[in-house]
Amino acid sequence: MATLDAPRPSALIAYAYDLMDRGPELERDALFIMICERALALAGADVAAIWLIGPTGELRAEQVCGGRPSATGIRVERQLAELVVSQRGQIATSAEAPMQPGLAGLCEQLDEEGAGTVCAALQRRNELLGVLCLHRVERGAFEAWETAEVERFARFAALALFQMTERERAERDEVTGTPGRRMLLRALDDRLADNETFALACIDFDGLKEVNNTLGYEAGNDLIRAVARGIDDLLNRGEIVGRLHGRGGDEFVCLLDETTHEGLERRCRLLEATLDRAAVPPEIASSYLGVSIGAALANGSTGPGPLFTEAEVSMRKRKAERKRSQGRPSGRE
Predict the structure, then answer these.
(1) Domain boundaries defined on the chain
(2) Which residue, 55, 126, 268, 312, is most buried by CB atoms nearer than 10 A?
(3) Within the chain, which residues score under 50 in pLDDT?
(4) pTM
């Protein structure tokens, strides 16, 4: 049985207002953590997880807070989350297991373990953004009033997530979907304010001008997107890549978690070697000539202007070195 004896509507209202006030302005990871922590406190749960729907409709776990459910709980969570998505339902719980092959038996097994799971849709109007899943471990299943509270809370969480997503869409580069100027500069300011060492890298690639001139600007956009995907695939969690319009259509900026000059130099050369072989569309592969990367380390005493200047000077120097080594004229881009 649950350890909580009565609903707490005041908690739901307080958490809802908190989400409305602060949620949309938070960065993605911070908002996910906030949603999970509020849901844990509201429902007296032990584990909270957010599943998001990917571009092709697949579910992926994005954030987990609290402890760890049993293996049975994990299997029940996955199936209940998939059920919410497939049936476009608002709520699914192990206490009222849907009659699906294998699921009812799993829910009975979970009940025997003294545990319970509830999954609520994160839905804004007709757009299903993801699923919020909660577990109670060794303290009984969720009661009906708790499930109802989770469902109501999920509506507020979905609104905050939707507003944050809309803000991100407005702040992202239209061609690549990577952070644009405002998002990138805000992330840079946040890192500088933390007074921790990190690196800013400028990545420039050759071939865009030729593709634009011979195949058109949409083919050029295909090349830009291919390079952006290649960069993003090589970044660690928490690192970001973006474009600053006005600084060159074929230039990207990365914030990297490197802390030493030696480590940064190795990372840049490894990125170059890998991105030189980036998967670009076959019809433009002959025009793509790889990337040149220059970077600078930042600490608490570094300002954004000098940091960009140092990284760009390093990148231009590296670009000239690569052109000489490849025997290319310096004017080709």
Answers:
(1) 9-169, 181-326
(2) 268
(3) 1-7, 246-248, 332-333
(4) 0.62
What is the spatial distance between Cα 229 and Cα 140, in angstroms, rounded to a whole number? 45
Q: What is the pLDDT of residues 293-308, one digit of tens each?
A: 999 999 877 788 999 9
Q: How far, in Å, CA of 117 to CA of 206, rounded?
A: 52
3-class DSSP state of 201: strand
Q: In whole angstroms, what is the distance from residue 168 CA to residue 166 CA?
A: 5
CA distance 183 to 220: 24
Task: Collapse the DSSP code of 290 into the 3-class scheme (helix H, G, I; strand E, B; otherwise coil) and give the result.
Answer: coil
Q: Which pair of tokens denotes residue 35?
A: 């949603």
pLDDT single digits (tens) 5-45 = 444 567 888 888 888 888 877 888 899 999 999 999 999 99
Strands (DSSP E) contained in 84-126 are 91-93, 116-124
DSSP reduced 3-state for 134: strand
Instruction: Report d(CA 330, CA 333) in Å as an integer.
Output: 8
CB 201 within 8 A of CB 253: yes
The answer to whether residues 145 and 42 touch, using CB atoms and an 8 Å cutoff, is no
Q: What is the pLDDT of residue 9?
A: 61
Average pLDDT, the chain: 88
Classify burial at 31, counting beta carbons within 10 Å of its beta carbon; exposed 0-12, middle 13-18, buried 19 or more: buried
Q: Enter the CATH code of domain 9-169.
A: 3.30.450.40
Query: What would be the CATH architecture of the domain defined by 181-326?
Result: 2-Layer Sandwich (3.30)
**Is residue 283 classed exposed, middle or buried when 0-12, 13-18 and 19+ CB atoms within 10 A define those classes?**
exposed
Give the pair of three-digit tokens for residue 269.
């050369």
Residue 201, exposed/middle/buried by CB under 10 A (0-12, 13-18, 19+)? buried
Structure tokens given for 324:
């000489």
Q: Are 35 and 157 in contact (CB under 8 A)?
A: yes
DSSP string over 13-54: HHHHHHHHHHGGGS-HHHHHHHHHHHHHHHHT-SEEEEEEE-
Contact at 8 Å (CB) between 288 and 310? no
